[in-house]
Amino acid sequence: MTLLISWIQSANSADGDFPLNNLPCGVFSNAANTQPRCCTALGDVVIDLAAMEGDGFFGEDLGLFCRPGWNAFMAEGPTAWAAWRLRMQSLFSQGSPEADRLSRYLVQRHEITLHMPFEVTEFSDFYSSYHHAVNVGSLFRGADNALMPNWLHVPIGYNGRASSIVLSGTDIRRPMGQIKLQDSDVPVFAPTRRLDMEVELGAVIGTPSSGRVDIGQAEDMIFGFVLLNDWSSRDIQAWEYQPLGPFQSKATASSIGAWIVMKEALAPFRRQPPERVKPLLEYLTSHETWVYDIRLRTTLTPPDGGPSLVSDTNYQTMYYTFAQQLCHHATSGCPMRTGDLLGSGTISGPDRDSLGSFLEITRGGSEPLELQGGQVRTFIEDGDLLSIHGYAEGEDYRIGFGICEGRICPAIPETTCRS
Amino acid sequence: MTLLISWIQSANSADGDFPLNNLPCGVFSNAANTQPRCCTALGDVVIDLAAMEGDGFFGEDLGLFCRPGWNAFMAEGPTAWAAWRLRMQSLFSQGSPEADRLSRYLVQRHEITLHMPFEVTEFSDFYSSYHHAVNVGSLFRGADNALMPNWLHVPIGYNGRASSIVLSGTDIRRPMGQIKLQDSDVPVFAPTRRLDMEVELGAVIGTPSSGRVDIGQAEDMIFGFVLLNDWSSRDIQAWEYQPLGPFQSKATASSIGAWIVMKEALAPFRRQPPERVKPLLEYLTSHETWVYDIRLRTTLTPPDGGPSLVSDTNYQTMYYTFAQQLCHHATSGCPMRTGDLLGSGTISGPDRDSLGSFLEITRGGSEPLELQGGQVRTFIEDGDLLSIHGYAEGEDYRIGFGICEGRICPAIPETTCRS
Fold first, then answer.
1. What angle do CA A42, A220, A354 make, to 5 degrees?
2. Segment B168-178 mean pLDDT
3. pLDDT value at position B414?
C-alpha cells in the first residue's frame, strides 16, 4: 500500500485519481488521432498505448490497443493483464531509463476527447445492497416485510439494456412513459415525474465462459470496475414492473465513467463482505470473494447554483460480491462474454448520508432534500447535473475512477420521432 | 395469394415450407464453403447468395451475403429488402432466361450445415398473449385477479440474454438453480424439476433507432420473424422473480429456427389483432399494425416413443402486435439496433389444444398430459425432443419457417466447471 513514484510528477500527488498504482483503462481521440484508441491515465496526462504497442513496447504488435475499446485486451486474460501492468509500472517509474523515449506518448488531458472505454456486450444489474433492499422494501411493504424471502439467499438481478449505456458527460433526456396517477384508473403517456439516480459500481467481464462457473473462476473472469449511474424513472417502474420486472423505467440510459479501474489496482482495498444474516448456499461461498473499500461521493448541481453533496457512500457495505453475482449469473448455464457489464445495484450504506438514490434520500418523495442555497429536491429536475466521484483511499495514494456525470435535459412530449 | 411458380420444381408443392413466395433467410456451410454464408431456401435446395452476389447478380458486390449472418443486409433497410426479393423472384420464376446460369448456385439440403441466421444483438421477451396471461395469472392468483392491472395497457416485456440464444437442433442442458421446495425454509441448489417450453415467434429488428419511435416507424423497422422456444425453469422462476423479474430461469437457452421469414412474405397473412378489452393509449394505435395467421404445431418425442402433438396454436390470437412491442420498447428512448430479437411471449389460444406451455397444459403440473403410447408428462423430461413447426397457409401455398427443435440432456450436478 505504498505509492509507486513516477517520473511523471503529477502522478505522485497523494490526492490524485491516477498514480502509477492505478493505470486505468480508457479510450481517447485527439486532433492527431481521430480514430479512438486505448490509453491510460497518469497524473495529468494520458498515455497513447496504441502508439507504444506499434513501437514494440509490449512485444509483438497484436493490435490490441489501436481499437476503440479494451475488449480485445480484456479477452487476453489475467496473465496478460498482470504482465501489462508490470511492464507499464516499470517503464513509468522514477529512474526508468526509458523515460526520454516514452515522453512522445504523453498527451495532455485537455487536448483529448474521451470515449466509451469498452464495447458493452450485455448489461445486467443487481440489487446487492442490504440497506438499499431494506429501505426500498420498507417504503413499499413496511418495515416488517422489507426483505423478500429470496433476498438473503439469491443475488437478485435482472437483465438491462446494453444499447442504453452511455459515457459520462452525455446529456440524459427525461423519458416519456406510461404512468398511472393515483387519481385515475387509466395510465397517461407523459414525461416521468420521478427521475432518480442509482449510484453504483459496475464490474466488467474480461474472459468468457460457457456453462456454469465456480465462484473462484468467477473472481478470475472479472477485469475491472467502472462508475455507474443507472437512471431510473420511479413512476414508470411502479406501473410496469409486475410481473416481469423493470423494463422501460431503466432503459433510457445508464452512465458509466470513462475509466475502467483494473481489479489488480484495487487488491489492497479488498474487504470481507458484511456478516451473513443467513448462511449462503455453498456454490456462492466455496471460494473467498471480496467487496472493496471504494468511496462514492455524489453531488447535485442545479442550473443556477453550486454543487451539493447528496450521497457519500461506500461499496464495501455491499452484501453480495461481484464474483457472487457473476457466479450466480451463470448457474443456469448462461454464457458470459468479454465486455459484459454487471451493475452492483444502488449502493446504500446504513446512514442517512450514505443512501444511493433519491427514492431513499427523500423517502419516496415525502421528505424533500434541501440543497446548498435553499432549493429543495424530491427527485431530479431538468437542468440538474449529477456527478459521482469514486476512489479508494490508501495512506499516501488514491486509486480513482474519475467522474461519472450527466445532466438532465427536458423531455420532448411531441411525437416527432421520424424527423 | 397465388403460388409463384419456379423452375425449381420442388418449390411448387402446395404443402412445402419454401415456395418462391417465401425466400427465407438462412446461413449455411458445406464441404466447398466452410465459412458460413447467407442462403435462401427454395423447395429442396438452398441458394448460395454469397456466390451470386460475387458474380454480380445483385449489382455492385457489397459483401452483404458472404458473412455468417444477415445483419449487414438487414441494416440496408426496407427498400433494399424489397428490391432483393423482386430480383430473386424474377431470377427463379418459371421461364427465367437465367435458369441455366443459376443452377450452379443450388446446393442440396442434405449436403449443408445450417448456422444461426443472424447475430443476436440483444434479446427482449414479451407477454403479449391474452390467454397466456389469463391462464398463468389464474394459476397464481385465481381467476378473479388473473390479469395484473397494467396488462391491458402496457405490452409487458423484460430483457433476456442474447448470449443464450441457440440454433434449432442444439441440445439443451437441464439447468441447475436455486429452488425453494415447499417443505423447507431454505432453498437447495439442484436441477430444475419443472423444465418447460414456451412456444413463441420472434421478430428480428432490421433498421436501428435512437430515441422514441412512432408506431408506423416501428412497423417499418421489423425485418422478419423466426420460430422461438424460450426454455423456462418454472421452479427457479417462482423463487427468483420478485421483485426484478425472471433471470436465471430463462437464461439457459432459447432456441430459434434456422430461417428468418421476411415480413413481406407474410403480408398476405396479416390479421387485425383481437378486439381491445380496454382502449390502448394513442402512441400504440395511431398507425395500423398486425398480427399474422401463423400456425404453430409442437410435438414432444420421448426417447423411446413417437411424436405426440402437445400444442397447436396460432400467432393471430396475440393481443399486442410486434410493432406495438417495439414502439413501447423505445418509449424511454432505449436505442434499438439491427439484430435485436423481440419474443412474442408464449402463444396460447383460447382452447385446451392451443396452449403454448406445459405450465398451462398440465395446470401447473396438476393434470398430467398423456402422450401417444401411454407415457405421461407434467413438465419436460431428460431425452425429450420438443419440435415446433410453423407456417402460414394460403390457398395453394405455404410460407413455412421450418422446424425449431431441441432435445433435453441431463443436468451435471457436480461442480466441474473449470474442466
1. 65
2. 98
3. 66
Nearest to A206 by CA among A86, A62, A76: A76
Instruction: Give contacts of B283 with chain A, Cβ < 8 Å.
Output: 189, 415
Binding-face residues of B in 113-132 toward A, CB within 8 A: 121-122, 127
End position of a domain, from candidates A64, A89, A115: A115
Q: Does B158 touch chain A (CB under 8 A)?
A: yes
Helix (H, G, I), strand (E, B) or coil at A233: strand
Beta strand B26-29 with A176-179 is unpaired
* Statement to judge: residues B219 and B342 lie in one domain: yes
A47 within domain boundaries? yes
Residues from chain A that touch B277, judged by Cβ atoms under 8 A, are none
CA B91 to chain centre: 29
Same domain, B311 and B165: yes
CATH code of residue B311: 3.90.850.10
Domains of chain B: total: 2
Report the CATH number at residue B13.
Answer: 2.30.30.230
Which site among A120, A134, A231, A334 would you substitute to test the B interface, given the most B Cβ atoms closer than 10 Å to its Cβ?
Answer: A334
Q: How many CA atoms lie within 13 A of B32 on its CB side?
A: 10
How many CB atoms within 10 Å of residue A343?
A: 30
pLDDT at residue A414 in the model: 67
Question: Does the pLDDT value for residue B419 go beyond 90?
Answer: no
Count of CB pairs separated by less than 8 Å, A with B: 198
Bond before B243 cis per omega within 30 degrees: yes
* A284 and A182 within one domain: yes
- d(Cα B326, Cα B215) in Å, to the nearest integer? 8
Question: Do both A355 and A242 map to the same domain?
Answer: yes
As a whole number, the mean pLDDT across chain B is 96
Which residues of B have a catalytic role annotated?
132
Report ipTM (2 d.p.).
0.96
Is the CB of B415 less than 8 angstroms away from the CB of A212? yes
